[in-house]
Structures are given as structure tokens and as C-alpha cells.
Write a structure and sequence with these properties.
184 residues; mainly alpha; Adp-ribosylation factor-like protein 2-binding protein fold; 2 domains; two-stranded antiparallel ribbon; 2 strands; 68% helix; elongated
Length: 184
């Protein structure tokens, strides 16, 4: 069979890759499991187990789609072998599937997503409330959405500790943002 006879398969798979049917389970898995990943050079055993589960999810999700198309896994593998470089879309499909099997690429993706989620949380946590310097009415001071007990009643030490904590949090957020940018 000439390579062009397989093109429709690659077109269908690429459309599937851009559908919620593919994207939703994959992104849910990544969001659920990325918290286990950190930026340490060490590769933990749990990373390998999560990657294996990810590959199984990919195989199952793609396999279900191919079955609906009436294509066996063997036929899809044959299409990938014979027509992988006949068109750029074919190469993209094969490349995307190969990258999902690459443990180091997977780890990088998971670390990046974990940092992005942490950054989102920190941005929400450090958002200044509209009345950030107003009093709550009971002697407590509201600073960036947090109630600090004993606001103006001699709490200089507490205020200083809070300011230091906020500064450290902001520095950590800046560090994470610059790290995420290096990953992209």
C-alpha cells in the first residue's frame, strides 16, 4: 500500500489530539499527578510508576479511538512505519506519540505543570484585597487578605514577621517564574 493511503489515519489522529476527548483525560492526569514531581535532579521510583500509568492512559485512549475508526493497533503501527515521513502531519503525529513515551520529556512536563500550578496558587494568595489597610473592626488588621491579630496594638514584631514572610513568598514566586520560563 503506498504511503498516501495512510494519510487519512494521520488526519483523523491529529484531529483527535486536538479534541476534548483526548485533551481532558490527559490534562486531568497531568494535573492530578504533577504534584509528585519536583525540580530535583534525582529521578524517584514513583516518577517511573506515574510515567508508566501515563503511557497506559495514552495507549488506552488512542486504542479506543482507533477501534472506533476500525483500525487495529497493528495497522496503525504499519501506517506509522510506512508513512511517517510522507507528510509533515504524519511526522507530527508520530513525533507526538514518541515524545509521550520519553520519560525525561514527561518529567520535564510534569515539573513545569507543577510549578505553573504552584505559581497560580501563590498569585492568588498574594493578591491585594481592595481594603488591604482597613481595620476589621475588632483590633485586627487586614493585610493582603489576611487578618493579623492585634493590628495596631503593639504588634510591630508580628507586622515585621508578616512583611518578611510576604517578601520571601514574593522572592520564591519570582524564582519559580524564571524557572518556568527556562523550561519553555
Amino acid at each position: 500500500m503506498p504511503p498516501s493511503d495512510y494519510d487519512w489515519i494521520f488526519d483523523a489522529v491529529m484531529q483527535f489530539f486536538n479534541s476534548p476527548e483526548w485533551d481532558t483525560p490527559i490534562m486531568n492526569f497531568i494535573d492530578d499527578k504533577c504534584i509528585q514531581f519536583d525540580n530535583a535532579d534525582e529521578n524517584k521510583l514513583e516518577y517511573t510508576m506515574v510515567h508508566q500509568s501515563f503511557v497506559e492512559l495514552i495507549d488506552q485512549t488512542l486504542g479506543t479511538f482507533l477501534t472506533r475508526l476500525g483500525i487495529s493497533e497493528e495497522e496503525f503501527v504499519e501506517a506509522c512505519e510506512k508513512a511517517r515521513s510522507s507528510r509533515s502531519i504524519n511526522s507530527q503525529v508520530v513525533g507526538q506519540l514518541q515524545s509521550m513515551d520519553d520519560f525525561l520529556a514527561f518529567k520535564k512536563l510534569m515539573v513545569k505543570r507543577n510549578l505553573a500550578l504552584e505559581l497560580e496558587v501563590m498569585q492568588v494568595a498574594t493578591t491585594v484585597m481592595p481594603n488591604s489597610n482597613s481595620s476589621s473592626g475588632d483590633g485586627d488588621e487586614v493585610i493582603q487578605g489576611e487578618v493579623i491579630e492585634g493590628g495596631s496594638g503593639g504588634g510591630e514584631e508580628e507586622g515585621m514577621k508578616d512583611a518578611i514572610d510576604r517578601s520571601l513568598m514574593e522572592l520564591e514566586m519570582i524564582h519559580k517564574v524564571s524557572f518556568v520560563k527556562t523550561l519553555t
